[in-house]
Predict the 3D structure of the following.
Amino acid sequence: ALHPVHVESVAWITERKNVLSGVLYLASALAFLRASQRLEAGQGAGRLWIASIGCFVGALLSKTVTCTLPVTLALVLRWKRHRIAPVRGMALTLMLAVGLAMARMTAWCETQVAGAQGPDWVFTLADRVLIAGRALWFYAAKLCWPASLTFIYPRWTSDAAAGWPGSFPIAAAGATAGLWLARRRVGAGPWVAVAAYAVTLSPALGFVDFYPMRFSFVADHFQYLASMPLIALGVAAATRGIGRLGGPRAGGALGALAL
């Protein structure tokens, strides 16, 4: 609610869709997870499944970046060690199918209606991997230290022939692999949080052409939803590290973010 990178989503009227889709996204996730809990307890949850799918469709109609929710929910089920029961599988499959259809329509609109085509969008696969790797670290860095935020960030040059840009995707893959290998020691939570962060950001990482790429590869409002897993991971790490996130510490953190 108070993180500075989210100001753009709230203050910029054309990004009201971010907040609206976020409410419906979270409502869908809440209904799904409650239905999943009832399933584990051997209880029926037909209305909750319907509510989850309905809210998900509403989120998609608000902003199709929410199409990644089914994958995130599958990651949460993996984290909680819940089996993919038939009813869960059916709900996730239906949500994924609808999400992919809406995402495909949005991609078509970006190229055919918004005009995301031409020399400004000509990239090789290697270029797009480099853009995505750097964007992942850019957003994570802005979450940790939200300084020098701006409406349009300078568009960097992506050159697959240069050696140093390759360090970003390599480091991202290495960090994810390291958390996966360490899951027995530290738990699956950190790996799931990082994977959910990357999955939720994936529509805005440059693999699919969208018009703002003409000016910049990144924007604060792109990580409105994706920031949640990393923020949750940070809070979990803080509470484990200091035992309990007491009032003075929490107040200080919130005060700094508000300022």
Summary: Residues 70 and 95 are 6 Å apart (CA to CA). The two ends are 13 Å apart (CA to CA).
